[in-house]
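note to self: dont lose this again. the chain is below, predicted strucutre after it. 163 aa total, dont forget to put it in the shared folder this time
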Amino acid sequence: MQEVNWIITRPDEKKAGQERKNLALAMLKIEFETNLERSRLYGTSLKKTSGDFSTLYPLRFTRGAWNALKESGFLPQFEDVEFVYELLRLNEIITVANNSLLKVRNAKAENQKTKLNTYAKKAVRECLQIETFLVPILGKLEAMKLPEVRLPEMPDADSENDE
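---
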């Protein structure tokens, strides 16, 4: 005996699913644009470790939208395996860079010049790597003609603690 299963979807369900996917990608694009801006700022500023780092804070890359999308099972919806790999690789580099930036902050706070120089050089290289991966990903996202999403400005937790 052979069993046949039919999955019937209404056209509006498919359209709503695509709209949710596009909105999620638009949020991710905003996060990536923020991280590209930060990678350029950090990569330039960390070449000199003698200055004041207060203008660099939060001195970390944001991953909130990425984490939410990853946890929601968003990635398996993509048929483009190469694009998914690029996203996963970028996430790995950002995670490593955030660890380096934490070490930079700690070395700066503890006035450990040798460690600060070592960690800053590593962070500069990682910022360049982030930029290298982000630019083509942002190009792909731009080509997708995603909807315009406006997110409310939220203060960073680090800046709130400074007051």
